[in-house]
Amino acid sequence: MPLPTPPQGFLSLVQVCDNFRVPPLSAQQTSYLTEDLVPWHLTIEPSSSVIGLLRASIVKQLITENSKATRDEEVPWNLRQENGRTTLSFASWIDTPQKRTHIMKEMCERWRDGGLWPDIIGPKKWRGEMYPVYQNPFGKNDAPSEAELAAEDSDTRNYAFMMERSACALFGVVTYGIHMTIYEDDAESGCKIWVPVRAQTKQTWPGYLDNTVAGGIPSGLGVFESLIKEAMEEASIPEEAIREHAKAVGSVSYFFWCVNSHYILARSVAHKSYETVRRMVGCNQK
């Protein structure tokens, strides 16, 4: 029987979560962190930005995708050697956000239905939610609305395309989230934080403790709009209360490599705080 995990401070928890650097910075990093990753560029241009990092198993499957094309002009992926290392990008004919979105959607759904990586994109893990991918992951978050998508299909924005949420980790792309901590600061009893428990039916981390309100930022929604949506869904807090009391307190970015799986999770999370008002009731009973 394993012994209980000793208490950990905030810094040690952050180091467990943010466990990957490119390239490795020290000899203390173990071998699985030094695996040669293939950069995923948006286009075949040498100056094209890197939008993701791919493990060998993913690259092998993408090569298989190319072999299925009946004509050269239908090959979806461009693989090449640059300075002695492999790089990958969309083929030159996949040159607009909607074309990229279509290719990724069709391929990832086929992988799901074919039983590839069921612990990541299997039917029980599939989210049915589209996440934006940006040319510069830390640039402007300007994913268009549905109406704007219908009217414009070009690379005039930082937005590059969107893809299924659960599949993002297979491709090492940066995803985005919003977290809010609700607390009560009482002169007699001190500071108390609202800590919910995740439902047992959640696709990820069922039954675990969670932040008060937290969720991913889907394509087409901004940070604050996502917070309003999540606050109502998860804590029954109305929009007007969020607009009055929520305060931005910072953001954190981390890069997590899962040693026992195929995924690389790169994530940027914005944080808000919310001090409760005595008269407000905003908590779902579970």
Describe the structure.
With 286 residues, the chain is α+β, with helices and mostly antiparallel strands. It has a domain at 175-275: Nucleoside Triphosphate Pyrophosphohydrolase, CATH 3.90.79.10. 23% of the residues lie in helices and 27% in strands. It has helices at residues 10-17, 56-67, 97-113, 118-121, 146-151, 223-235, 239-245, and strands at 38-41, 50-54, 77-82, 85-90, 130-134, 159-164, 174-186, 190-193, 213-216, 247-257, 264-275. The strands form three sheets. Strands 7, 8, 9, 10 and 11 form a five-stranded mixed beta sheet that branches. Strands 2-1-4-3 form a four-stranded mixed beta sheet, covered by helices on one side. Strand 3 (77-82) and strand 4 form a beta hairpin. The longest helix is centred in the middle third of the chain and has 17 residues, at 97-113. It starts with 9 loop residues before the first helix and ends in an 11-residue tail after the last strand. This is Nudix hydrolase domain-containing protein. It comes from Hermanssonia centrifuga.
Short summary of the structure?
The chain has helices spanning 10-17, 56-67, 97-113, 118-121, 146-151, 223-235, 239-245, and strands at 38-41, 50-54, 77-82, 85-90, 130-134, 159-164, 174-186, 190-193, 213-216, 247-257, 264-275.
